[in-house]
Amino acid sequence: MDNSIILIAGGTLLGVIIGFIIAKTLEKSNAAKGISNAKAEAQRIIKDATNDGESIKKDKILQAKEKFIELKSEHEKVILSRDKKIADAEKRTRDKESQVSNELSKQKKLNSEFEAKLKDYNYRLDFLDKKELEIERLHKSQVEQLEVISSLSAEEAKSQLVESLKGEAKNDALAFIQSTIEESKLTAQQEARKIIINTIQRIGTEEAVDNCVSVFNIESDDVKGRIIGREGRNIRAIEAATGVEIIVDDTPEAIILSCFDSVRREVARLSLHKLVTDGRIHPARIEEIVKKTRKQIEQEIIEVGKRTVIDLGIHNLHPELIKMVGRMKYRSSYGQNLLQHSREVAKLCGIMAAELGLNPKLAKRAGLLHDIGKVPDAEADMETPHAILGMQWAEKYGEKDDVINAIGAHHDEIEMKSLLAPIIQVCDAISGARPGARRQVLDSYIQRLKDLEDIAFGFTGVKKAYAIQAGRELRVIVESEKVTDQNASDLSFNISQKIQTDMTYPGQVKVTVIRETRAVNIAK
Prior knowledge:
Blueprint: H1 2-150, H2 154-201, E1 213-217, H3 222-228, H4 233-242, E2 245-247, E3 254-258, H5 262-278, H6 283-312, H7 319-327, E4 332-333, E5 336-337, H8 338-355, H9 360-369, H10 386-396, H11 401-409, H12 420-433, H13 440-457, E6 462-468, E7 473-478, H14 485-502, E8 510-515
Parallel strand pairs: 7-8
Antiparallel strand pairs: 1-3, 2-3, 4-5, 6-7
């Protein structure tokens, strides 16, 4: 039993040893085979690398050769270009040298010619000096001989000759002046008529005369009641705010607006149009609309002035003068619209100045501005003659001296100092003298209404004053803080006495003083 175990154990051990030996032998065999394979692979890689290296080397050498050839070609081009520039520069230098040598030869030739001419000139001068001395000697001897023959000295003979020539020249001059004056008298009047007639014929003018009434058309007679308001409060508010008399009568679909001031009348007309269109007619709304309309009219005045200046081709006019030109649209002179009159005078002046060879643009400028003094800003300006006031404004706003003098002298208030002044005077007379252009009666009527309002403004506490009903009523609105109810009654009496004393008028003038008290609070 023990021997069999030993044998088994020994056999097992021997098998293990033999297996190990066999495994080692196989391992060595595999290792040797792997080494040989690795060496073969390494040799192949080295060979491939060598081949690739040779190929890359050849490519790099070829690229280097190509680059060298390219750089060499560029270098040769640069050298050729430089050589060409040097050759061109040398050629230009040679040309310049040739040109300079030619110029030098010409200059030498000119210098030689100049020296020859200078020598000849000096010779001639010496010869002329000798001749002059000889002539003076001969002249002196002749004068001495003449003095001996005439028994007069040279100075006495000269004075007698001068006196004789003076008398003849004076007689000839007087005869020429007389004939010129006679000829001028015959032709001057004819030429003046010709220029004036040509000027008038080239201007087409309107002969419509402004009046003091505007008609406001309405869609139906129901609107009249809304305009009048409860117990007439609306119509009273409109009249108080605008200073225009509102006449609501049986005329179908029409309301009459009566006022001598065109601006007030236009404000009332536009305000009524806005109120009727909006539908809300009450005193507060009326006052609001009237204020907005007054601002609108002011803007429209500026636009009218700009359009007028552009139409006439007048440039660089001061904005204040443009505004005054626009105001002319709402002013009249003896019933003739002031803006139409001024435009007409400007065109006449331009044509007449062109006929006389003067500056037509400057003449147009003076013609347009000649009556700006008729649209005064303040009550104090109304006491100054309109020509002088217009001249002062033109000077204030930088107009030229000729324009200023023409404005001030067109009614002979100042002396005329330029040719523009008589042209303005003549054209102003032409525009106003046309049949139908003006009405003296209308202008005196408007002046009477203005005088009525001015009398009211002369009293303390008067806020507004409106002459209505063709001057038969003066409506005065006073400040409630300065005038009491008792004072209002006294003021009405004093104004009526002042009108009765200072003015001449037909019929009667009713003076109505209105004192209104308002209490205003705001609920927040």
